[in-house]
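Bug: token stream looks shifted between consecutive jobs. Job 1:
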Amino acid sequence: MRDKIDIKGFTLKELEKALSGIGEQSYRARQIFSWLYQRGIKDFSEIDNIPKKLITKLDQIYCISSPTPRQHLKSRDKTEKILFELSNGHLIETVLICAKGRKTLCLSTQVGCKFSCSFCASGLNGFKRDLTVSEIIGQILYFRNDFKHKITNYVFMGMGEPLDNYENVAKAVMIMNEPKGLAIGARRITVSTCGIIPGIEKLNGLGIQVNLSISLHGANDGLRNRLMPINKKYPLEKLLKACEDFKGNTGRMITLEYVLIKGINDSTQDIDGLAAIADRLKAKVNLILYSPVPGLNFKIPNPGDIDAVTKRLTEKGVSATLRKSKGRNIQAACGQLAGTKNEI
């Protein structure tokens, strides 16, 4: 018997086409979508408004799969992290961040990462594979349906590089934004990238005005080459031009993510360079304190140096926010996700 197809891998239009291909009316796709994403069913037998003959057909061809939770950690700052096992045994991590009335779900898009940013744990064990559409959506459904969390924001900032898995991430965004799907407003969705220019260009044409976040971490090519090898393929000037095109086409403000690392990217010259880029893009800046990763010899700046950075950016007219690194004690902060079971 052939393997069943995960029905959560289809966008609404794709499911309409698939149902037409097996002799069913396309409007059934909207009904199925509503049951999958608004009612959270886990078995086709739970659907009560389509013919039993169609339910039998669905069960013969399709499945409704979910990642399996293997570890649930809670931080003292209310951050929660789930270690999921996928169907082939690979592991990913998903984080829920609670702050000031917001619940932000940080989604993974790959098992491991191939881009080897020098301060990040996600690529330390190498790249294994892309997540499927269903595996991306499954993270959301678990937190929404099993934990009953009322999530306010969704960020593609977990394990992996979202725009290196563009097709699956784009389909997941369509399902998230689809009124018959998860019905999540585009402005509540943020896609982050280390600087994959072709992916930014594709996202520019997606037609859904999601937020774009750039993992910058260095304001010149020399520093970015050192911290983020992807810069050698897509250097800073070309990246900034792609960002300008995105902003011009979508009208959305871009966010620059900047992990502050002591003695590496926190000098006056570095911060002035960051301010110049923020001014050019009319972007806001999220300053993130480096979170320790076992085996990596980076350090967090001193409190006085951190204050000096935020003050200098403010004096230069930059909208900058110092993001507290939540979940650090459970290895759930920015740069700490590695897809391994934590002994806490």
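Job 2, same session, no restart:
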Amino acid sequence: MQMLIKGGRVIDPGVLDSPADVLIQDGRISEIRKNGKGTGTGLAAAGFRESAGSDTVVIDAEGLVVVPGLVDMHVHLREPGQEYKETIETGTRAAAAGGFAAVCCMPNTFPVNDSASVTRYIIEQAARCGPVRVYPVGAISAGLCGDQLAEYGELKAEGAVAVSDDGKPVADAQLMRRALEYAGGIGILVISHCEELSLSGGAMNEGPVSTRLGLAGIPNAAESIMVMRDIALSELTGTPVHIAHVSTRESVEAIRAAKTRGAPVTAETAPHYFTLTDEAVGSYDTRARMNPPLRAEADRLAVGQALADGTIDAIATDHAPHSQVEKEVEFDMAANGIIGLETSLGLGLDLVEKGILSLEQLIAAMSKNPAKIIGKSCGLAAGMPADITIIDLSAKYTYKARKGRSKSRNSPFDGWNLKGRAVYTIAGGTVAFDLSKEV
């Protein structure tokens, strides 16, 4: 089967930004040819013809933007073990609807993904029922217990792209050092959940809002202290470290300084950290409870600036589905986390609308940058896997969590008016999402 995407504005960050046609054959990009309006230079003008009854799929992308398939390097698919919250099937369908052609799933499942058998199960299940690519992330420590390392060689051999104890920090600095040494020796990425547990016993950000609500607070230092430690360990071992879900200005400053020194550190943030502040907790709204917590306005602005200047490399959702039972309780008893796969692109495009990022910067942060960090190919060029997202920048809509593809509904963006969304998601040359076919 072949597919022709014609008439769109093709953006491959750092490579191409032009009207062009894209031809896909056998799951890969076969050709990209610029198509200036009225010049007759596209693929169709060059002799390509789609005849009635052929197996060619033609997508008219006039007025749309064609970009590398988005990559979310931080999601929780909950399978195996917590399928009442999410499954690989429902999570990947939500991902496809959000424009993501690939996602990395965190290891805090039941059982924990600390073994070859669990990694294999995730990959096989994704191949059976997932419309997009799934890249498993294995555990740093066995059982996420923080006392001995998992077998990274086995995890990598089965398809894991990184290791992380996400949801829990590696509290023992010596164990984290050994994790970096082991990972560096076999070439697998370490993703760090930076949290100093002795400082993080609260329910929300420490500040005037937590004082007003009478809730125990979590200071910025609970994150930034561990960011500084893991940067130091990365420099000690010479092994790259990736800092997950950056939320504070102090963490941004530490990462920026490390990059200036040439330290092998990369970082991500999530849309809620550049969109919301701790004011979103309002009257104890548990949809605004997460870890790390929503911070102050100065932190929100610092995160946006860090994306603009490249201190933070990637935008990841930290998609964390929970059931109503776990969210509709007292604020300090509620589970941490929000869903985000179907709102990430729209919220990111708001940064473009406000002039904080260029469109090319946003696309890089949501596609090529995360792919590069996990060691995967991403881009629009002949021979590349046909992972492509087609975006309508002008589409205006109201996000309604109850109509989402995720099993869970825990989103503080429910009812928000957004502008810009994926209309097609293509993974491996197959259409994983087509907005025109949605009810």
